[in-house]
Amino acid sequence: MTTNQRNRLVVFFSVLAIIIGVYLMQGMFGHNGSGCPAEFENTTENAQVFLMGTIGGAWSEPNRDCWREHVIQPELDTLGVTYYNPVMEDWSEENAREEAEAIANAETIVMVITANHSSIGSLAESGWAILSAIEREQTVIAYIAKESDDADSLRARKIVLSQAKTLAPQIDELILVDDVDGVIDALREVYR
Fold first, then answer.
1. Could you tell me the pTM of the whole model?
2. Which of these ranges, 26-35, 132-141, 172-181, has the smallest mean pLDDT?
3. Numbers of helices and strands, H then E, in the chain
4. What order do you get walking across the sheet with 174-176 strand by strand?
């Protein structure tokens, strides 16, 4: 297989993983009553950081995971770093195109998979997202909680973490951290 063919396959499978994740989550978004801020600014042209990972339910779900809105986005605002948050109230095919553009053009991919939800869709996307980010020479900051009450999620987490820990020492752009505070520390290191 030529390098060009390999690169085309990486792009194809990266977009496919995003689309699969989209379809897994597409029916989840309703009205916001979750406690997560409903209003935030997203740009695709200038987004330095793409925020992927656990959503944990519908837009209106009271227990939806708000790690983006409550923890990471305020820190990025403080650092003066632009970001793309793919969580939308009414998800559409246009959002899929925007998301693919944003992830392809970001300098850094932040992947947070929390213990609060099974996050099967995010875990499924994680391998392709990391691989394509490495191919594009993007930095990946990843936190994947080791715990889960869901047996399938726990098994998937173990596989993804094992592969990521094997790759991380060989790939400078892959930063694995132990918690969300580690994500903040890594972002500060990258963007100071």
1. 0.77
2. 26-35
3. 7, 5
4. 83-84, 49-53, 108-113, 139-144, 174-176
The Cα 140–Cα 103 span in angstroms is 11
CATH 3.40.50.450 fits 3-191, yes or no: yes
d(CA 55, CA 165): 24
- Look-up of token digits 């900051």: 141
Closest CA to 91 of 37, 40, 24: 24
Structure-model confidence comparison of residues 176 and 128, the more confident one: 176
| CA max distance for the chain | 50
**Where along the chain do its domains lie?**
3-191
Q: How far apart are CA 42 and CA 91, in angstroms?
A: 14
